[in-house]
Amino acid sequence: VPFTDPGERGPEAVTAIVEALMARIAGEQEPVVETSRLQSEVASVLRGMGHADLVEEHVEPKSAYTVDLWLPSEGVFIEVDGPYHFHAGGRTPLGHTRMKRRHMGQLGHRLAVVPYWDW
Question: According to the UniProt entry, where is the signal peptide (predicted)?
């Protein structure tokens, strides 16, 4: 199905999209996420180390960012960054990845990053 402007489908379509976004922002609707195998492995190791309070796909309420892993007892967020977070063939983070890291830091959060090449 080719992309069409929601306005071309009528005001009801626009209203439905806005309501879905507002519900997501308000936390009334869980985000649709896919957990990578790499992220699952990191989570499994952390649980094996005794971090039973580990939360996967945590939505940080101040920013609405979904963070891969959260250790509430340690006050640490963990991002497991696969190759799609970096420029092709390199280790330079893409803009959206850098921005998320910067925003999390500005909010006062401790953020640990596990890049795929370190795993």
Answer: none
Query: How crowded is residue 52: how many other Cβ atoms within 10 Å of its Cβ?
Result: 8
Q: How far apart are CA 65 and CA 57, in angstroms?
A: 9
Please, are residues 81 and 92 in contact by the beta-carbon 8 Å criterion?
A: no
Q: How far is CA 52 from CA 22, 44, 92, in A?
A: 32, 10, 33
List, in sequence order, the alpha helices (H) in the chain: 11-25, 37-48, 95-106
For 100-109, the pLDDT digits (tens) are: 999 999 999 9
Is 81 in contact with 66 (CB distance < 8 Å)?
no
Residue-range definition of the domain harbouring residue 39: 35-118
Domain of 105, CATH number, reads 3.40.960.10
Residue 68's nearest CA partner among 27, 100, 92, 90 is: 100
Do 12 and 66 share a domain, yes or no? no
Query: Which residue type occupies 100?
Result: K
For the chain, the domain total comes to 2
